[in-house]
């Protein structure tokens, strides 16, 4: 029996810093981290990220995917932001993951080094959508293949759907940090997410963190929505 505690990351997907700040205040007692990503960074910039993340654990979800030199240099440009977690795409390849890991070691102190998370297969993809990109064999085997590549090359953890958690824990054990988006409380609309589970199911399958966006930010009371998810995780 693991003593893992599954925690909530609230995805604050908006272009508006005031809205992000309001949401951050509402969810902060219940979410252990906030996630800011491409939508916010492109609209509001990295300075706004710093302001909203001040005093909070930040999951900076940039999903970097480029040649190793460019990814390493981009990470060098992030040292002033000080995120707790940072994402790259595992499909960028072994050398790109290694360059990202090296850049984190070079640009952050040991205490402040962000956890490097490699995105395996986006939770918006199912077997058919993945096959249409030329990857045969199904989502699960691609997640395991990319997980192996990423963990061997310096990633500290993975972004995957909750459906792959049991297979990843069986293959790689307890130490990789496993982060699962595609989480929907019972009855919530899946939207564009294809591989979904409830917060409690993801907890039972072995998630360290769950990421929840629209079911929280689209609720009439985002604070209450986050509190309900935190309660479900604590059951
Ligand atoms: O495979 C992935 C990787 C990242 N995400 C991000 O998580 C949130 C999910 O938001 P919801 O509104 O709860 O669907 C979003 O910011 C994505 O960019 C993901 O969904 N899947």
Automatic annotation (TrEMBL):
It catalyses: orotidine 5'-phosphate + H(+) = UMP + CO2. One of its GO terms (molecular function) is orotidine-5'-phosphate decarboxylase activity. It holds the Pfam family OMPdecase. SUPFAM superfamilies: Ribulose-phoshate binding barrel (SSF51366). Keywords: Decarboxylase, Lyase, Pyrimidine biosynthesis. It is an enzyme of class 4 (lyase). Catalyzes the decarboxylation of orotidine 5'-monophosphate (OMP) to uridine 5'-monophosphate (UMP). Pathway: Pyrimidine metabolism; UMP biosynthesis via de novo pathway; UMP from orotate: step 2/2. Homodimer. The lineage of its organism: Bacteria, Pseudomonadati, Pseudomonadota, Alphaproteobacteria, Acetobacterales. Substrate binds at residues 13, 35, 61-70, 123, 184, 193, 213-214. Belongs to the OMP decarboxylase family. Type 1 subfamily. This is Orotidine 5'-phosphate decarboxylase. The active site is at 63 (proton donor). Coiled coil: none annotated. The gene is pyrF. Residues 7-229 form the Orotidine 5'-phosphate decarboxylase domain. Its EC number is 4.1.1.23.
């Amino acid at each position: 029996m693991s003593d893992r505690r599954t925690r909530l990351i609230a995805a604050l997907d908006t272009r508006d810093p005031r809205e992000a700040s309001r949401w951050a205040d509402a969810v902060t007692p219940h979410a252990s981290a906030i996630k800011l990503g491409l939508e916010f960074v492109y609209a509001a910039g990295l300075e706004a990220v710093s302001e909203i993340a001040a005093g909070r654990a930040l999951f900076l979800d940039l999903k970097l995917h480029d040649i190793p030199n460019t990814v390493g240099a981009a990470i060098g440009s992030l040292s002033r932001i000080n995120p707790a977690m940072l994402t790259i795409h595992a499909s960028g390849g072994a050398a790109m993951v290694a360059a990202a890991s090296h850049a984190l070691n070079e640009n952050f102190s040991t205490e402040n080094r962000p956890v490097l998370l490699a995105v395996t297969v986006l939770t918006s993809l199912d077997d058919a959508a993945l096959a249409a990109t030329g990857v045969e064999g199904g989502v699960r085997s691609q997640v395991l293949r990319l997980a192996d590549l990423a963990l061997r090359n310096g990633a500290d953890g993975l972004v995957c759907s909750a459906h792959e958690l049991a297979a990843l824990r069986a293959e790689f054990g307890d130490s990789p940090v496993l982060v699962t988006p595609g989480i929907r409380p019972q009855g919530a609309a899946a939207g564009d997410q294809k591989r979904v589970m409830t917060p409690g199911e993801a907890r039972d399958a072995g998630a360290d963190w769950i990421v929840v966006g629209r079911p929280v930010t689209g609720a009439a009371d985002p604070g209450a929505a986050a509190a309900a998810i935190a309660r479900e995780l604590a059951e």
